[in-house]
Amino acid sequence: MTDNRRSRVTTEGVERSPNRALLRATGFGDDDFKKPVVGVANAHSTITPCNMGIGGLASRAEEALRKAGAMPQVFGTITVSDGISMGTEGMKYSLVSREVIADSIETVANAQSMDGLLAFGGCDKNMPGALIAMGRLDIPAVFVYGGTIRPGHYNGRDLTVVSAFEAVGEYCAHRIDSEELLEIERHACPGAGSCGGMYTANTMASLIETMGMSLPYSSTMAAEDEEKAKNAEESAKVLVEAVKKQILPRQILTRLAFENAIAVTMAIGGTTNAVLHLLAIAHAVDVPLTIDDFAAMRERVPVLCDLKPWGRYVATDLHRAGGIPQVMKILLSNGLLHGEALSVTGRTIGEILEKIPDEPSRDQDVIRPFRNPVLERGHIAILRGNLAPDGSVAKVTSLRPVPFTGPARVFDSEESCMEAILTGKIKTGDVIVIRYEGPVGGPGMREMLAPTAALVGEGLGESVALITDGRFSGGTRGMVVGHVAPEAASGGPIALVVDGDPITIDSGRSSLRLEVPEVEILRRRAAWCPPPPRYIRGVLAKYARQVSSASEGAVTD
């Protein structure tokens, strides 16, 4: 424990009296100045069901910290709801919020010289935002996930929030009537917790557990179950021990931990956003990591879990089947996980998994045996080519024809594309191009769940491709390629595509190509002019000026 962190609380003498006087007002007694000060970053909010149960969890943890001999200091962090803002201008703030969360946690923890950090989060950007802050701070820290939502039920099937998005496309294609659309909306989200499939929130929570920054089994617990509250209390106790032993995030978030996280991303069929967020977290702890590391892991690790958005099950089903520890043990048993990596508990990953069976239980089919995977190799492919010289990220399923070539249908915003889809202007075989939606161009790199869900709802999910310099929701399925870099606003080749140009997506060869002669591409480049920024003041303007390429994690520092 460094002296400069503790000195503000523990140094005796009159020169510290003003500082101590303020702390007494918050509840410190004489003996409390000798205890470690632990920040509780509380992301409670009624803005989104993902975070509306976090306040109670934070209160349970606060009391557990006091009983364990620490002095908790609770402060708020922001959240926005990706699902509620999806398809609107507000979605531009989603990825920006990751940076705001990281900056705010770093600011409070350093300004108040905290000895440890317990961070709570539920919606998508809470997790990477908190981990980025932990990496920068490098004080003992534990992340506590708010938990997943239980599935909704209607007409004999499980529902998630993505069901509501896809129902819009079904309604527009006259596959369901307005009453069924309304019933799906009413039943999709039954209570508190993050979106139920292996979407971004559940994926990132799973990867934080994999990397050892949260407790085993914590990433698949239901938000409203008592075990989640007990997990918050146990996390507090583990953090106090980590403070005593000085187990630091940079000892845990090593290259081995990131390789483990990428392996689990593939095995659980996780979101493409994992690429963006793991790159950003690695940047925060100075661990070299590139998109090519995901490409290499794809060749080694199969998809083992049959989870939504393109599978059958949700996160609570995975929890009952053995959770992330069971997935990790299968990978460890097959030489695809680093068991020597450290966790915040002080134990190695191998020690944590020691008593987990090598094979999943035979009375479930959520987690497949290694010899009988859902897909033979990972579902996240890194594509390069003359349309994405710096790379792009594709989600690949077994239903996808490879290669796929079709004429470009070009849109300079998500809204204009959505209008074309809902009015029947997109046809089988088209390759939709949505551009100027990247980190700089959007700004904010909006997720394209509304267009992709509408395509699925209209029955075009496997016959129409969509590429973008924006990104996708973890709930997206279909033939999609995102994170195209360089982005259009930075002069990337995606800015040069015109309607009708043939585009080829070939995940087998990891290729994304504009089938236009090079001389024509050069002619178009000479004529291209960068568009004016969409915002000149405020957080989006500041973000656009600072943010890096998606291929580097869209970081701002």
Describe the secondary-structure layout:
Layout: H1 3-10, H2 17-25, E1 37-42, H3 54-67, E2 71-76, H4 82-85, H5 92-111, E3 116-121, H6 126-137, E4 141-145, E5 152-154, E6 157-159, H7 161-172, H8 178-187, H9 200-210, H10 226-245, H11 249-252, H12 255-268, H13 273-284, H14 291-298, H15 315-320, H16 323-333, H17 349-352, E7 380-385, E8 388-395, E9 404-411, H18 414-422, E10 431-434, H19 449-457, E11 465-468, E12 479-485, E13 502-506, E14 511-514, H20 518-527, H21 538-546
Parallel strand pairs: 1-2, 1-3, 3-4, 9-10, 10-11, 11-12
Antiparallel strand pairs: 5-6, 7-8, 8-12, 9-13, 13-14
Domain Dihydroxy-acid/6-phosphogluconate dehydratase C-terminal: 365-554
Pathway: Amino-acid biosynthesis; L-isoleucine biosynthesis; L-isoleucine from 2-oxobutanoate: step 3/4; Amino-acid biosynthesis; L-valine biosynthesis; L-valine from pyruvate: step 3/4
EC number: 4.2.1.9
Quick overview of this protein structure:
By secondary structure, the protein is α/β, with parallel strands linked by helices. It has helices spanning about 5-10, 15-25, 55-65, 80-85, 90-110, 125-135, 160-170, 180-185, 200-210, 225-245, 250, 255-270, 275-285, 290-300, 315-320, 325-335, 350, 415-420, 450-455, 520-525, 540-545; strands at about 35-40, 70-75, 115-120, 140-145, 150-155, 155-160, 380-385, 390-395, 405-410, 430-435, 465-470, 480-485, 500-505, 510-515. The protein has 2 domains: about 35-150 and about 160-350; about 380-550, IlvD/EDD C-terminal domain-like (Glucose Oxidase, domain 1, 3-Layer(bba) Sandwich), CATH 3.50.30.
